[in-house]
Amino acid sequence: MLKKIDSMEQFDELLEKESKFYLLKHSLTCPISHAAYKEYEKYADEHQDIPTFYLAVQESRPLSNEIAEKFQIKHESPQAILFSNGEALWSASHWKITNRSLVNSRTENI
Question: How far apart (Å, rounded) are the C-alpha atoms in residues 98 and 80?
Fold first, then answer.
């Protein structure tokens, strides 16, 4: 199940609480982002053992920018990021966000 986050406080709490999780930066107006969201949602439904979160870029731009700056990951939307132990291990954007790429990223970064 996908959970929405809106603030840096929520994100910092995730970094402290979750040893591993995914985050999707999602645009509410982009058809490519909509397709990526559907793939991300499918992954989340099939792999409920790893937490999955998302933010809507239009509603949480300061958070999106802060994550890009803090982890030195060029901002893109849509963008999926795998975090582990407070570090960004993997990211993909646009059409590279698929159920398969998410599964592969997890197995490659265990």
Answer: 10
